[in-house]
Amino acid sequence: MNKEAYEEINAWAVKKSAILRHNPIQYIVKAMLASFFIGFGIMLSFKLAEPFFDAGSPATVLMLGAFFGIALVLILYGGAELFTGNTMYFTMSTMSGKTNWKEALAVLGACYTGNLLGALCFALFISGAGIYNDPANSQYLMDVVSHKMHYPASQLFFKAILCNWIVCLAVWIPMQMKGDMAKIVTMLLFVMTFVVAGFEHSVANMVLFSLALAVPHPEAISVASAIHNLIPVTLGNIIGGSVFVGMVYVYLAKPVQKSIPKEAKERITVKLLEMNKSRR
User: Which runs of consecutive H residues, i.e. helices, occur in 81-175?
Assistant: First the structure.
């Protein structure tokens, strides 16, 4: 495993915690930006997929996922703060002793709050722009939201674990690569995987649900149904990022220490003595 990437994760976690401690408003704004960037990705993806949905094309989901990864690219290169990614960052940094659990919880709480505020603000912008005033322009969006809001909680939980597992890998793997283009393509492919597979991302859902609720929508879409989705999805995302990426790679980062048998140690000592004599 790339040691530099591991150290970079720790350095970023320390920096994130310091920003929240010294300038909490700035940190909340950075978290709100993440939701705006995800909102841009949602708008692009659903606009591309809507004609395919209307035509009943099997390529609808592929079009939805093809460019949604632009949201993650904007977040990482635009300096925004994403709750789901921070579950990995702060698990790694806290287990390595660079931060503590109190700092981790504080950042995660502030980030989740900022992401939610950003989702609500983005929905107000889209509502004000009148983009989805005509229900004919949002049929696929409403269909996706309606299904997400009514899946069983157990399914949402496991879909969320799988989702943030992939999302955090989309952050972690490119950190070990050279060249921005390679990193961006990798991010796009990872994110496309979770979208096409139908996994659940808490912050993306915040933005999607806020958007659907802010414009004309079917009765099946409600605040209560949104909460039904977000609770198990948030818990699943935490486990996916912290356990399956954060804890796993902290464990893999530990050096393997093999005990050398006593007889082998004695043979090594004798050989070293003979080498020293020959040099003299």
Answer: 83-95, 101-129, 139-149, 153-172
Q: Residue 72 in contact with residue 2, Cβ under 8 Å?
A: no
What sign results for the dihedral spanned by CA atoms 102, 83, 21, 124?
Answer: negative
Which pTM was predicted?
0.90
- Domains present along the chain, CATH in parentheses: 3-279 (1.20.1080.10)
pLDDT at 257: 59
The 10 Å Cβ neighbour count of residue 43 is: 17
Cα–Cα distances (Å) from 15 to 22, 81, 113, 246, in that order, read: 11, 12, 19, 18
**CA torsion, points 21, 227, 132, 69, in degrees to nearest 10?**
60
Residue 59 is predicted with a pLDDT of 96
Using 50 as the pLDDT threshold, list the residues of the chain that sit under it.
none
Model pLDDT, residue 152? 98
